[in-house]
Amino acid sequence: MAKTRSSRPKTANLEDPMKRGLMVLFAMAAVVASLGCSQVAPDAGHEAVLIDKPIFFGRGGVQDNPIKTGRQWIWYSTDKVYVDMRPLQFKIHLDDFMSKDGVPLDFDAVVRLRVLNSVSLINGFGDKWYESNLEAEAVNRIRNAVRKHGMNETAISTEALDDIDKEVTEGLEAYIKASGLPVLLIQFTAGKANPPDSVKNQRIETANQQQRALTEQERKKAEDQRLEAEKSRAAADNGYRNAMSMDPAQFILLEQIKMFHEVCVRHPDGSGGGCTFLIGQTGASPVIPVGK
Which pLDDT score, from 0 to 100, does residue 167 have? Predict the structure, then answer.
């Protein structure tokens, strides 16, 4: 009997090449997809706003939902703008702002803001929203507020600075509301004004002159008090002399005796004493041992 050889179906011989072809196709697609994508990875406290810019087809514009903290793949043609959602601080340095009395002043101010809606902010005002909208408005309102106060009160008085802070804060809040900026004004603070060096030097010299005048006044006051004390003492001595019916020579002699007594009498602590008196025609004269 003749043996028959069984043969495999032709489709079975094609399975391996087809699998290999599909794997290569998928790998090529993955490579193409990876080359056409990019990553978005906002840090903590930040959001990423996506802006679609299709090359061939599709609708462009700002996407409605931002990317929160994490990582996500996007098309290479999509732009991303990172927005800091934490409280932000912007410093402003102002030169030569004229005060009410015409003195140029320098200021350092601080504006603290917080973004409320990142998508609305970028869609309506762009990534330079502060520089393009709020900075110039803040500078203008500070200038107008400073003009209402003089140099001395602005540079020294805290009440003037409080008035400036309040006026600028209210103005910025009204501007933010009217313009539709999705940000919150946390605080505005203006530092003390710095006048020019020439004005500072004049103020220092004026202060020195005022201090010298006060010193002279105090010296004159002390001398006047001393003069009145001497007058009172003289009046008391003269009254005592008249009461004792002594002439001036006798009173002077009495005072001399008192002086000798203070010098020559030995005190309980051992000081004084030891005087030698020389008696002559003109009277007794003590010899005081100054070396003891």
Answer: 95
Q: For the whole model, what pTM was predicted?
A: 0.57
**Strand duo 104-115 + 37-40: pairing:** unpaired
- Compute the distance between CA of residue 272 and CA of residue 83 in angstroms, rounded to an integer: 91
Q: Which residues pair with residue 108 across a beta bridge? A: 93
- What does 202-266 look like in DSSP terms, one character per residue? HHHHHHHHHHHHHHHHHHHHHHHHHHHHHHHHHHHHHHHHHHTT--HHHHHHHHHHHHHHHHHSP
Q: How far is CA 121 from the centre of its chain?
A: 29
What CATH number does the domain located at 88-195 have?
A: 3.30.479.30
* Exposed/middle/buried for residue 247 (C-beta within 10 Å: 0-12, 13-18, 19+): exposed
Amino acid at residue number 260: F
Q: What is the pLDDT of residue 187?
A: 96
Residue 21 scores a pLDDT above 90: no
What is the rounded radius of gyration, in angstroms, for the C-alpha atoms of the chain? 49
Q: How far apart are CA 161 and CA 285, in angstroms?
A: 77
In the beta sheet, which residues pair with residue 39? 73
In sequence order, what are the residues at sequence separation of 6 or more whose Cβ sits closer than 8 angstroms to the Cβ of residue 174?
Answer: none
Q: Is the distance from CB of 115 to CB of 88 less than 8 angstroms?
A: yes
Question: Which residue blocks in 9-94 are alpha helix, DSSP H?
Answer: 10-35
Flag whether pLDDT at 249 surpasses 60: yes
